[in-house]
């Protein structure tokens, strides 16, 4: 489904922008191809630039609050200054590289509950407020992501929810100012030791760093706590191993060596514990300036809440 919105930079009679994606489906490390279609208004217009950018919804934790904001995390200028004559039609083709760390929004053709992603087109017109067109984008998993997600399902885990947390995971090389958490309810065979698991992929051209956060059940004399595990896999491993066996090994190792991991990750910091929340973890996010930041535009929020807000399937999961 391609979501398009025709907008005029001057209101009635001004130029309009409409972006059409060749295919709204992509994967991390690939591209999004399409064209930006401009139509001149009643008078000649000086276009300063045409910019496209990937936007998504990110959870932000404050001191005692948590809220969701819309963030542009990757952008590209597709045209510099140009003059658009009255009623002139102009198409500008583009190929936008999709960052390797771009979060996954769709699995098996179904939207992961909690995920949004769009391509925003910004038309900057001299002496006028920027106007935008927003198109829905679906980011599908790479083969190694898919095998690991399949393994969780084969082991009986049930998908719960996915979201993006602003900040950095300590000790992990990240290029984006947020990371994705894919949450599962534990399957019966793990229920005695684990309540839930949060799975994070930090992907690069070389491979994927897999971070597991297990919510461990407390025993009769012990309190529950979170345990962490970090594992590096190569893209070429996708079809070489029994992933259910590998993931089972990760879960058992992660939950059995909590003591040593606690010292490795340091003391907990609220939700996300070993993750870089707070000011330290936000430094790179604050430096995002050039690439974007939190967008307050009502139109974008409205578009997400209206056309993007629905649950496009639930990856076989429960609320």
Question: What would your notes on this structure say?
Answer:
The protein has helices at residues 143-154, 243-256, 258-265, 278-286, 298-308, and strands spanning 7-8, 16-21, 25-26, 31-39, 45-61, 66-79, 82-84, 89-97, 106-107, 110-111, 118-125, 131-136, 138-139, 158-166, 168-169, 178-185, 194-203, 207-216, 225-234, 275-276, 293-295. It is α+β, with helices and mostly antiparallel strands and 319 residues long. The two termini are 24 Å apart. 40% of the residues are buried. Residues 1-10, 218-223 and 258-319 have low confidence and may be disordered.
Question: What's the quick description here?
Answer:
The protein has 319 residues and is α+β, with helices and mostly antiparallel strands. Helix content is 17%, strand content 43%.
Give the key terms.
single chain, 319 residues, alpha+beta, 6-stranded antiparallel beta sheet, 5-stranded antiparallel beta sheet, 5 helices, 21 strands, 43% strand, elongated, disordered N terminus, disordered C terminus
């Amino acid at each position: 489904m391609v979501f398009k919105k025709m907008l005029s930079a001057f209101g009635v009679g001004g130029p309009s922008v409409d972006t059409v994606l060749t295919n709204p489906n992509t994967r991390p490390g690939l591209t999004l191809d399409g064209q930006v279609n401009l139509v001149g208004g009643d008078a000649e217009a000086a276009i300063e630039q045409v910019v496209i950018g990937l936007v998504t919804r990110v959870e932000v934790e404050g001191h005692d609050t948590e809220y969701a904001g819309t963030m542009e995390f990757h952008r590209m200028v597709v045209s510099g200054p140009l003059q658009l004559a009255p009623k002139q039609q102009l198409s500008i083709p583009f190929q936008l590289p999709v960052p390797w760390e771009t979060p996954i929004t769709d699995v098996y053709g179904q939207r992961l509950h909690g995920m949004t992603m769009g391509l925003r087109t910004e038309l900057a017109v001299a002496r006028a407020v920027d106007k935008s067109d927003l198109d829905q984008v679906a980011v599908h998993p790479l083969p190694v992501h898919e095998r690991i997600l399949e393994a969780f399902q084969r082991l009986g885990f049930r998908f719960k929810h996915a979201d993006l947390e602003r900040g950095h995971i300590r000790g992990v090389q990240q290029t984006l100012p947020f990371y994705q958490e894919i949450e599962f309810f534990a399957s019966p065979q793990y229920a005695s030791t684990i309540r839930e698991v949060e799975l994070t992929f930090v992907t690069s051209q070389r491979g994927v760093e897999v971070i597991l956060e297990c919510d461990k059940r407390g025993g009769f004399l012990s309190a529950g706590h979170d345990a962490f595990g970090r594992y590096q896999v190569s893209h070429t491993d996708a079809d070489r191993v029994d992933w259910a066996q590998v993931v089972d090994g990760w879960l058992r190792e992660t939950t059995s060596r909590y003591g040593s991991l606690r010292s490795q990750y340091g003391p907990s910091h609220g939700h996300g514990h070993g993750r870089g929340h707070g000011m330290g973890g936000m430094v790179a996010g604050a430096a995002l300036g050039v690439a974007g930041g939190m967008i307050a535009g009502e139109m974008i929020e409205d578009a997400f809440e209206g056309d993007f807000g629905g649950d496009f399937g639930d990856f076989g999961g429960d609320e």
